Amino acid sequence: MSRLRIFDEHQPQHPLSVHDDHADIARALSKVGVRFEQWQANQPVAPGASQEAVIAAYHADIARLMREEGYQSVDVISLTPDHPDRAVLRQKFLSEHTHSEDEVRFFVAGAGQFTLHIGDKVYDVLCEQGDLIGVPDGTRHWFDMSESPYFVAIRLFTNKEGWVANFTGSDIATQFPRMTPLANAA
After folding, report:
1. Mean pLDDT throughout 94-122?
2. What's the whole-model pTM score?
3. Partner of 111 for a Cys bridge, out of 37, 61, 82, 128, CB 3.0 to 4.6 A?
4. What is the CA radius of gyration of the chain?
5. What is the DSSP letter of 33?
6. Side-chain half-sphere of 96: how many Cα atoms within 13 Å?
7. How many helices (H) and strands (E) does the chain have?
């Protein structure tokens, strides 16, 4: 189940509020300029499906976002607990950073945890299958996939070079809860 925990940036042990209703999550994130939607596949996507099959299943939604927001490229990232580079890939995203473009991810399968540092609040968003999150450019954030990652996500970019991070140098990400592995991710 998707979840949003909102923390004071100085109180990582105790959330100010917790939301697990999709509409409540979308409303709370919308107030700080973050897009949060649920999508349905037009056709089933089986584990291990090719990038082309995943993109085809969500073609209408991808085309809509590309038209609305000017995204130039799309790809699919897929990680499982047995991926040989999972620890290196996890570490790459765990430090607070920003981007010069929106970071848009749609979770086809599994889950990932986006944590956003906006003003004096920290928004910890557990995204699961069917969730799309759009983190605006310049937003301080980090991403965790757990020690045993299991997710398939569609990524949309305005920069054809793909993911380019500007690290803030802050250690705030080390102070907040990490993602725990999904029980069904084997």
Report:
1. 94
2. 0.91
3. 128
4. 16
5. T
6. 19
7. 4, 11
- Residues facing 18 on adjacent strands: 5
Output DSSP code: residue 174.
G
Show me where the domains of the chain are located: 3-169
Q: What is the topology classification, in CATH, of domain 3-169?
A: Jelly Rolls (2.60.120)
Q: Which amino acid is at 16?
A: L
For residues 71 and 101, give the distance between their C-alpha atoms in angstroms, rounded to a whole number: 10
- Distance from C-alpha of 124 to C-alpha of 129, rounded to nearest angstrom: 17
In order of 48, 63, 79, 116, the CA distances from 59 in angstroms are: 18, 6, 22, 28
- Asked if residue 34 lies in contact with residue 18, where contact means CB atoms within 8 angstroms, the answer is no
Q: Running DSSP on this structure, what letter comes out for residue 173?
A: G
pLDDT digits (tens, 9 = 90+) for 33-78: 999 999 876 677 766 778 999 999 999 989 999 999 888 889 998 8
State both tokens at 2.
Answer: 């998707």
* 27 vs 157: CA distance, rounded Å: 24
Tokens of 103: 């970071």
